[in-house]
C-alpha cells in the first residue's frame, strides 16, 4: 500500500508549524493516496521517525517522501536523507522513494506577482523588487534563486529584480537594502521568499522600518506562503514519484 510522508522544516513559532499542517491538509484532497502523514525535520513534532512509523502502522509498503522546502540545499541533500537512513534500518522491507523541493517553477513566479499586487500599492514604471531568500551556502540555491528573480522580472514586467539573503551567504539583507536605497528606483518592493511566518519575517519587517525616505518608498509584500498553487506542484511531484520505477536507494541520490 502506498503512503506519502510530507517533511516540513519546523519552526519555533507555533503559527509557522500550524501553517504547514494546514497546507498539507488542504493538499491531501488532491492526492489519491490512502495514507498521508506530515512530520517535521526539526523544532517540532511529529518527527521524521514518528511520521515514518505512522505510515508503516497503517499498512504502508511503499512510502513517497516529499521535502516541503522551497529550494534544494543541505536539508534536502543531507539532513533529511540522513534521518530517513536512520529510520529505514528498522523497516528494511519498506520501499522508499524520495522527492525534491518545489524548486524553480513558473507557478511560484505567479505567486510572487500576486503577493506584490496584494500590497495594493500602484506599481510605478521605475519600481524594482528585492527578493529576500532564507539563504544557503549551497551554490545551487543561489543559481536557482537567480533564475526565479529573472523569471519574475520578465513575467512581472519589472525593470530590475535583485536578490539578497537572511543567512549563510551574501549579499545579506542589509546589503540588498543599501544597494536598493542607492539606486534610482522610486519604489522597492521587498518580497520575502519564505514558506511560513516566524522569526525571519519579523526580522525583515523590523529592518525595513529604517529605510523609507521621501523620494523612495520601500514596500513590504507578504511572504510566499503555502499558496494553493504549491498544492498543484506537490500533486505533480507525488504522482511522478509513485509512477516512477525508483527503489529504496533513491533516498541517497543527493549524498
UniProtKB/TrEMBL annotation:
One of its GO terms (molecular function) is lyase activity. It comes from the Bacteria. The keyword Metal-binding applies. The keyword Lyase applies. Keywords: Lyase, Metal-binding. CDD domains: CbiX_SirB_C, CbiX_SirB_N. InterPro entries: CbiX-like (IPR002762), Sirohydro_Cobaltochel/CbiX (IPR050963). PANTHER family: SIROHYDROCHLORIN FERROCHELATASE, CHLOROPLASTIC. This is Sirohydrochlorin chelatase. It comes from Priestia flexa.
Amino acid at each position: 500500500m502506498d503512503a506519502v510522508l510530507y517533511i516540513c522544516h519546523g519552526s519555533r513559532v507555533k503559527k509557522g508549524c500550524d501553517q504547514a499542517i494546514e497546507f498539507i491538509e488542504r493538499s491531501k484532497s488532491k492526492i489519491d493516496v490512502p495514507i498521508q502523514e506530515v512530520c517535521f525535520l526539526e523544532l517540532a513534532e511529529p518527527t521524521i521517525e514518528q511520521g515514518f512509523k505512522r505510515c508503516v502502522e497503517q499498512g504502508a509498503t511503499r512510502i513517497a517522501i516529499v521535502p516541503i522546502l522551497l529550494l534544494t540545499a543541505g536539508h534536502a541533500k543531507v539532513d533529511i536523507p540522513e534521518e530517513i537512513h536512520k529510520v529505514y534500518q528498522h523497516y528494511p522491507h519498506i520501499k522508499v522513494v524520495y522527492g525534491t523541493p518545489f524548486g524553480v517553477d513558473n507557478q511560484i513566479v505567479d505567486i510572487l506577482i500576486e503577493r506584490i499586487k496584494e500590497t495594493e500599492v500602484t506599481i510605478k514604471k521605475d519600481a524594482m523588487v528585492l527578493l529576500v531568500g532564507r539563504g544557503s551556502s549551497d551554490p545551487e540555491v543561489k543559481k536557482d534563486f537567480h533564475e526565479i528573480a529573472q523569471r519574475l522580472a520578465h513575467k512581472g514586467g519589472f525593470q530590475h529584480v535583485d536578490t539578497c539573503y537572511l543567512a549563510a551567504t551574501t549579499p545579506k539583507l542589509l546589503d540588498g537594502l543599501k544597494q536598493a536605497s542607492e539606486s534610482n528606483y522610486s519604489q522597492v518592493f521587498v518580497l520575502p521568499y519564505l514558506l511560513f511566518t516566524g522569526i525571519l519575517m519579523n526580522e525583515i519587517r523590523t529592518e525595513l522600518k529604517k529605510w523609507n525616505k521621501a523620494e523612495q518608498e520601500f514596500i513590504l509584500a507578504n511572504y510566499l506562503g503555502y499558496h494553493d498553487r504549491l498544492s498543484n506542484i506537490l500533486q505533480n511531484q507525488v504522482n511522478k514519484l509513485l509512477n516512477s520505477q525508483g527503489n529504496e536507494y533513491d533516498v541517497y541520490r543527493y549524498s
